[in-house]
Every structure is written in C-alpha cells, then in structure tokens.
Amino acid sequence: MTRHPGTPAVVLRTALTTPLLSAFLVLAIAAMTLAGALVPPLIDQARTATVQHQLRDIPEIGRPLTAVQSWIVGMQRGGPGKTDVWSEPLSALQAQRDRQPEPLRSALGAPRAVGDFRAIELQGDRKTPRNAVQLIMDPGLEQRSRLVQGAYPRVTDPAEGIEIVLSEKSAAELDWKVGEVRDRQGLPVTLTGLVAPSGTDDLDWDMLVGSRAPTVQYTPMGDIILQTVGFMAPDEAGVLGDLLTQAATFAWIPLDVSRISAGDAATVSTQLRLFMANPVHVGSSGDFFDNGLQFSSPVADALDRGVTRGSALVAVVSVAAVGPLAVAAVVLALAGRQLALRRRRAAWLARARGASLVQLCVVLGGEALLLGILGAAIGLAAGAMLARGGPDALTMLVAGVLVLVPVCTVPFTVVADLRRTERRDGSAQRRRPLTRLVGEAVVVALAVAVAVILQSRGESLRVDPVLLAMPVLIGAVGTAAVLRLLPLLLDALLRAARRRTGLISLLGPARALRDAALRTAPALAAVIGLAVAVFAVSFAATVSDGIGRTARDATGADIAVSMPYVEEAQIAAARKIPGVAAVATLDADEIGQGASEGVTDRVRVYAVDRNAFARVQQGFDGALPMPASLAATSGGSVPVVASDQLLARFGDGLTVNGHPVRVVAHTAQRTPFGNTEKWVIVDRGNIDRIGVSSPVVTKLFAAVAQGNDPPAVSKELAARLGETATVTTADQLIAQSASDPASSALRVALMVSAAIVAVLLAVAVLQTLMLGSVARARLLALLRAVGYPRRRELPLVAWEVGPALVIALPVGVASGLAMSWLVIGALDLRGFTGGETAPALSLPPGWLAAAVLGFAAVTAVAILLATATAMRLRSAEAIRVADDEG
Questions:
Q1: What per-residue confidence (pLDDT) applies to 872?
Q2: Do 55 and 116 reside in the same domain of the chain?
Q3: Gene Ontology terms, cellular component aspect (predicted)?
C-alpha cells in the first residue's frame, strides 16, 4: 500500500511552487515596514529642527535668562566699605543653577552678575555729542578684555570722583580722551583707559548693549543720543554709599539652546517657567533690600511654539499615514488572496485526505505568518540601520498589523472556497442582503458619531483613535457607496448593450457584474487614495493661505518699514519713489491707561492718519477696519477702533487715559503696529483728545502701484531711508514661515503620502486584474477560436475595473472633501500659520483637478500593465491553468 504524505507536508511542499508570489509578499511587507520604521525618527528630527528654528529666531542676546534688581545686593547705604562685592551673589546664583533638574541644568551656563549705575549724560568742559553713559561694575572685566591704552579703573572715593574705561569705538564716538574728566550730575568721571574684547565671552559684551560701540537713539524732536557703557572698578559698589540709590544688580544666565531636543522641549519649558516664577535671593539672609532676582526669558515661549508646531506636525502626519496604511492593507489582502488561490488545489487534496478546517487554517496561516515575519524582520532591521536606533512601540504595532493581514486573508479565502465547493448542490452561497445592510449601517453610524465628536470637541493637537479613525471610516463609507452604485451602473450598461451588436460591450458589464471580488479592492483603494490626495491638497492650501494671511496682517501693507525715528523728509522721499502708490505712517505708539466700571489695565494707543492708512490698505487682503467715522474730531467721546480682547476685558463705558472713547469698529486680527492684544487705534487728529503726550513716527507703510514688483520697490525704499530702516514685505514673512522645518517636513510628508498611495493604488489595480487573468485568458482563448482579433484585450480588461473606478472618482473626491472639512477643522493649525485665529479651509480647484487627473493617469497605467501581462498568457496556457485551478 502506497504511503501518502501528511497534510502539512502536502501544503508545505506546495508553498515551494510559487516562490515569486511568496517573495513579493515578503518584499511588500518589508518595504511597508521599513517606511513605517523610518517615519518616527524622521518626524522627531523635524520636530527638533523646528524647535531649534524657533530658538534661533531669538537673537543671541535674548536667549539668556535675565533679571534686574534695585540696589546692589549685600551693600548698605552709608555702611562700611566692602572689598569683595560679587563673590556671594555669584556663588548663590551658581548654587541655584546647580539645583535645577535635568535637562534644564545641563543647558544653563555659568551665571553672571554686574552692578548697573543708571545711564545719565556726561558733560565735558567743551561741546561733546549728546550721550547717555551707563556705568557698569563688572567682576569679569579684566578676564574678557584687553587693555589698549591707559589703565583699568581703581576703587576711589566717590566724593573725589570715579574712574572708568571705555571701548575704543565708544571713546572715539564720544570724543573722549584718556585722562579727560567729565561731569555726571556733580560726580567727576575720569577716563583712565581704553579696552577691547579679548575674544572670549563675547556674549557678555553683547549683553551689555553699547559696550562695544555706542547705539543710536532718537528723541521725539529727532535729536541723536549716543548710548554707551563705561566700566567702573568692580568693587566700587562697596564705597558708593548714598549713591547706591542709583544702582541696580543686573544678572544673566546663558542658555545653550543647542542642547534642547524636541523630546525635552516641553520639559525644559516647564522647568524654565518654574525657575522664572520664583525670585532668586542672592544676598545675605535677612537683607532688607534683597527682593530677589526675578529672571525672565523668551525661550520658554519659543519652546512652546516649537512644541506646538511639532505636535501639529505629528497629528497631520499621523492622519496622512492612515491612507497609505489602509491601501497597503488592501494590497497585502490581495497578495494573500493570490497566494490562497495558488494553495487551493493542495488544500482540496489535504481536505480529501481528512484534514480539518482548523488544521488547514493553522498550516496556511502559519505559512503566511512565516513570510510576514520574515518581511517585517527585514524591514525593521533595515530601518534600525538607517535610523540608527531600535523600533518604537508604534512601529512594532504597524509591522504587526501588516503581518496579520495576509495571515487572516489566506486561510479565510481557502476555507471560503472549500465550503462553497462542499455544498451538495454546488451552487454559490446565497447573499444575505440584511447582513450587508446592517454592516453598512454600522459603518455609517460610526462615521457620523466620530464626526460629531470631532466637531464638538473643538480644535486640538492630540493624536487619538477618534482622529485616526475618521479617514478610515470616511473611506469605508465611500467604498460602501461605490458598491451600492456600481450594480446600478452595470445594470444600466448591460441593458443598453443588449440593444447593440457589440460583443465586448455585452461581455464587459456582464463579467464585472458577476464577480464582485474584481471591483471591491480597487474601489476601496481608489476611494482612499483620492481622499488622501484631496486632503493633502486642501491641507497644504489651507496652511499656505493661513501663512499668507498672517504675513499680511503683520505687514499691514505691501511694504512695512520700521525705524527708530522717521523724519518728514524721509516720508516725503518715500512718496516720490517710483512704484509707490500711497504712504501712511504710525504717528504714535504709547502705553495708556484703560478703565471701565472699576477695571483698569494697560492699553496700547496707536495713532494713524485714517485716510492715508485706508488708501494704503485699499484692496489689501487683511486690511484693518478703518471706517470714515474714525476721523471725526468732534463730539464728547473719541472714536476708536478696538481689539476684541480689549472689549472682552473692559466691556462698555471704556475710557483711555481718562478720556471717554466710542468704539466705531473692532476686530480680532493682529495689527501691524505691535504684538499687544489690548489696543485702540485713533486718528492722528485726535491725539490730543486721548492724552498722547509724545507722538513719534516709528513705522511707515507703503502700497505698491499695480504692475510694479514689491521686492524691487522695497529695495529702493530701504536704500532711500538708510541703514536704520528695517523693510519687510509679506512675501518675506511667507518665505520665512515656509522655511520652518516643520512646514518643510509637512509638505514632504503630504507629497510622499500621496505618492505612496498612488503607487499602492496602481499595485492594487494590477493585482485585482491579475486575479481575474485566468478566467479572462480562457474567455479570450474561446473568443479567438471564433475569430476575435488578437491584441484586443484592453476593452475587456478595462470593463473589469473601469466602472468601479469611474464611480470611485466622484465618491473619492467627496470623501476627500469630507475628510478635509472634518480633520482640518479638528486640528489647531495656528502653530503652522502663526496667526491668532485658525485658517479657513481652502479648496483650490486647480490643484484638486490635478489630483484627480493624477489618479486617472495612475489607474490608466495600471490597466495597461495588467493588459500587457494578460497578453503574454497564451490561450493553451490559460486553459491549462484554468483546469489546474478549477
């Protein structure tokens, strides 16, 4: 008696008969796992880069933690002299720095502290430039400077005068010779030497603004004042006596922002805020004058902005990744089905020899599991090598999902075929319309429920299952709609074909209508693919429009100019520049006092020429409301335009500087005048009526005439106004925002997501057509036997997937629009745009049309490839393969 091999041996031997299909499954899972393994580290790099970008936007001298305290800590007015003034404060600051938790401690540098003798004009016996010299007592002066001429200052009796040194540039600008004495409100000040930076601790020089060279300030009358720093002996504070009332302690702690990564940014921000919330006491215990050094720094806010943009990036990339992952599951399911069809004959043989369905599922699923694990291992290993790190939990989860798809598909397909074959009558299993209807109703109900949750909870940056489920549910609802509409279309086409004589027009819809498997997969892939493409286009356009609106709000005109002081001659010169259509100025920018029903607070008061500013903003997107009534100069109250934040703070009955005001317009948008939230705008004719004391023109706004190039006009304007002018255009701000690593990473992620979906869609269509290649080839063989021309397979192939893809086109677009409206509306995109309000959804028709045409092109290429493959299968081979699989 012949001994037959066991069931596992039969199936495992069959596994060796299709090495190409097994290799495809392994490589597909490896490629998808590799992509999943590379995404997290790339996103982390982008998050760190955007945090660093936000920090680099802060000037270097703005990054250290700084604090100012009245008095020199440890000194007593009228007390005995002290020769070691700074050791105790510096030691206390260093100890406070050492007590900070990680990672903040490693980012903090050595603390610095100096004595600050307030800036006052020093006058000489001869006419000298107007100046304001700030006298500094720096304990580290001799270590970070070199003596160029003369000598370092000594500790002297203030009754006889004090000694200072200046930088070479400061002395030259002030026209001050070594040995010359000048007067500081009765206090003689002698210049004993000149110093220059030694090249070490350059940040210390930068922190003391004016120490290297004088800075220029302007009075309201346009006069120039040179502000500079002179260095006293560090221990001069010990003998100042009654002059201590004019002194203060200025301290700073450097912050090495390069040490802060995206993972630490939120923690460092929290630690910084805690550090800055509590004053640091650096004097002797019980010192009455030691109020503590209250440190501050804009770094915490910059870190929060970087974290916000990074969180928004993670949220958007996560949503965008759902589409490729879903289509990848479709491709792997189709690959599993192809593998199952090749294992069907072996499974029938094993079943005939007594193998149970459970045994078959274990063996067939085990084969798919081994292939999947091999592919996942390859992908994870390659990802670990490229990313130089092990996979995280999310990557392992994605790899597990990819492996499970064919593991479930292969046994399910084989078992379903076996059960259908084992039916006594051999007929196909009857459909259960009620079951299908219930399933579709559940999907629709879930989609509606998730949509309601997203709409009700407001904007967020959290990545949660609700947000990630929305794209999948939208794709599922779209697929259900396609499968409901497709039979109606095919029935209509079949009825129309019966009235004609064409053979293919009759066979095509009949075959597509009969085999649902040939249309389900491409419909799902097409709906999800189109939805992802539409979402990518609308999201990119929404962010781009939001950045543009924020930039226009910040500039207030085609060109904005900021200067310390804008002279009338410069304004007149700006109006004469070719290409400048109109010019307006900010005539006053002062802090006022707002009051209403017992509530008082600071209010920023801006004054402009209403008519001139309205001309500058005419036709400008983002124009501030400037009603004609703003220019009214009569009546009991002053007409103003107010911010919504100010109205929310004060309500009705508002007064500014004690003067009643009348709000003629209000807005929530930012002004191009400053970043404050509570402000009012008045016409320049009402400056006196609202208590503005010292109006100074510091900003200029210009509108570019139609047909002229704003960058060219801005360059001419900058050249005409001089070096003190900072010229900004909306295009410059847009380019600056677009250069942020988070924005760049987002654009790349959306493009890559759309490209991956397009490739996977083509593969899904190709696989679907390959699944029907045997039946199609057998039909073509029969058709050729009755005289049907060779190389005419394209129409028949197109009928198999064409109708489903045609219906998937509008459904996919609708799904993408719904996904854009729901998902984008649920994300807080202000981190990307930098605006005060969320950007409005943008749906550019041109780019949407390009996405649809790209989908059509991908599908056409896939159909052509499948047709070429079908043409290579000869009739005799088709009949033989059909016999083998039948």
A1: 56
A2: no
A3: plasma membrane
C-alpha to C-alpha distance for 628 and 861, rounded to whole angstroms: 61
Residue identified by tokens 């990473």 is 745
Q: Are residues 86 and 191 in the same domain?
A: yes
DSSP helix, strand, coil percent of the chain (3-state; round to 5): 55, 15, 25
Strand partners for 115: 137, 249
Among the listed residues 95, 97, 79, the one whose alpha carbon sits nearest the alpha carbon of residue 87: 95
Query: Residue 17's domain spans which residues?
Result: 1-63+306-429
pTM above 0.85, yes or no: no
pLDDT of 342-372, one tens digit each?
777 777 777 777 777 777 777 777 778 888 8
CA nearest to 192, candidates 243, 234, 230, 236: 230
- In a domain? residue 442: no
Half-sphere exposure of 123 (CA within 13 A, CB side): 5
Q: Do the domain assignments include residue 325? A: yes
Give SS3 for 65: strand
65 alpha-carbon distance from chain centroid: 26
* CA 313 – CA 407 distance, rounded (Å): 33
Number of domains observed in the structure of the chain: 4
Shared-domain flag, residues 56 and 70: no
Proportion of the chain above pLDDT 70, given as a percent: 83
What pairing do the DSSP bridges indicate for beta strands 699-704 and 679-683? unpaired
Residue 207 is assigned to a structural domain of this protein = yes
Whether residues 98 and 205 share a domain: the answer is: yes
Q: Which residues have a Cβ under 8 Å from the Cβ of 93 and sit 6 or more positions away?
A: 111, 113, 251, 253, 280, 282, 293
Would you list the DSSP string of 564-629?
S---HHHHHHHHTSTTEEEEEEEEEEEEEEEEETTEEEEEEEEEE-HHHHHHHTTT-TTPPP--GG
DSSP assigned state of 145: E
Is residue 607 domain-resident?
yes
Of the three residues 724, 745, 764, the one that is the final residue of a domain is 724
